[in-house]
Amino acid sequence: MKRLMPWILALAALWGNALLAQSLAGTWQGTLQAGKELRIVFRVSTTDADNLKAVMYSIDQSPQGISGAVAIQGSTVKMSIPGIGAYEGKLSADGNLIAGTWSQGPEPLSLNLTRATSLTAWAIPEPPVRQAMPADADPVFEVATIKPSRPDERMSILVTPGGRQVSTAVTSLSDLITFAWGIHPRQIVGGPAWLESEKFDVLARPDVEGTPNQKQLRVMLQKLLADRFQLTFHRDRKELTVYTIVPGKTGPKLTRNDGDPNGLPTLGFRGLGSLFARNANMSDFASLLQTLVLDRPVVDQTGVSGRFDFTLNWTPDESQFGGRPGDAAQRTSNADVPPDLYTAIQQQLGLKLESAKAPVEVLVIDRVAKPSEN
To answer: Is the pTM of the predicted complex or chain greater than 0.85?
Structure first.
């Protein structure tokens, strides 16, 4: 009988956690004091694998929900929202209150959540209807201005909601080529020195209504570069030292995005070594790493399809971000310093970044000129 007791206790604990997970499903809401009052809503539900997931809404800021993961340990509830922040709290004995904190910056903020009913739940605004550009459209930029950048600006490539305007800041022609064709700067062969040294701001408007998908956006930029920079090239193949992204031993740890599978991804940095991604596939992730972080092309060999929301936090070294190692130790809200990039990708995403040599396609510049007048 004594030998059975540990098994009985373990089964009871597992059964208790399963019941707790089921009881947590529903709508939870509370007000965050962040300079002004922000109403926060979490909708918690179960996945096909009987895990919990949450969709977070900040209804005073945006009607758009952001998916995240939920973990339960005893009465402690943790909800992680990729690219945004994390919530941790204690579930009350009656199961109707979670007292906790929201962490998004250096100081956690108090956020107590109450279980909402159909009568007490706050209404979530309907998102604006954004018409997608027809899939068979072959758009061009009907209006485009290109001017030298101011030195105090920061590099960016942005598409406004609805897709009516595309803008870039502090982008070299090399930056624009790598974005337009999804390649690394090392895959550009030839061309004058100003290809990388001179920076431009671009403001352009498509000639077709609706939000372009990623392919349409790149095609428009390719046409713009051919027209305004007189860019011509031919393709070749060259063996280069690359990084490959492959599955880790435990498999990918990624939160699937249930939004528009053809929508534009959102990827960026909250600081050097603090990456967030929403509605992004593995090719998008590889492209961001090779464009802004690493010193060589990155090849996606994960075999993972679909779009995901995730964050990645690591301590950069001198080989990354063009030799700017960053200040990851100061960015953290506790004493823990994030691991290096390779360890972080394996631990946080369930993937591996490996060095290899492989033949890759290169663009050989035949002709290019500084941009024509606006």
So the answer is: no
